Fold this sequence. Notes:
Blueprint: E1 2-8, H1 16-24, E2 29-34, H2 43-51, E3 57-60, H3 63-66, H4 70-82, E4 86-89, H5 102-133, H6 146-157, H7 162-169, H8 173-184
Parallel strand pairs: 1-2, 1-3, 3-4
Keywords: DNA integration, DNA recombination, DNA-binding, Plasmid
GO molecular function, one term: DNA binding
Organism: Acidiphilium multivorum (strain DSM 11245 / JCM 8867 / NBRC 100883 / AIU 301)
Amino acid sequence: MIFGYARVSTAAQDLTAQRAQLAAVRCEKVFCEKITGTHADRPQLRKLLAALQPGDVVVTTAVDRISRDTTDLLVIARQIKDSGAGLRSLAEPFLDTTSDFAEIVLAILGVAAKLERRRILERTAHGREAARAQGVKFGRKPKLTLHQQREAAARVAAGEPQRVVARSYNVSQATISRLDAAVKS
């Protein structure tokens, strides 16, 4: 069976042109949705993938209709291949997993996904560094202010029991114990 998949990013956009292109290549059933391609949860795409049988073909007007994320696209292409079906893109004829070059296409998509993931990690790291340079602090806020930490450490050093100090600041004894250990080291 030849399945079509059409997607637009917003409810205000129209699927007519995509449906016409898919009808022109004799798609027997077309799954359509109006949802962003960056959204991983796409109900119609899930239904399409669940319906696939060996020998079926999924046709889309352009590869970005399946996904705009290369990693996500690779996962979906693998799901299609693992079900025994193929994937074709009308706008990108090289993306035809039903051809002899299917493994090459998937390998290239895999490399592209790795490169994209690496770029995302680099951008994230640069963003974190820039934020730190501007004084942004990451992680959970300390349970005690710097003044309270000094005060609690002094009380413990003076011999007051940790559980009493902890109770007075409404924190656990473990918090005071960690504070005490940090002061002693």
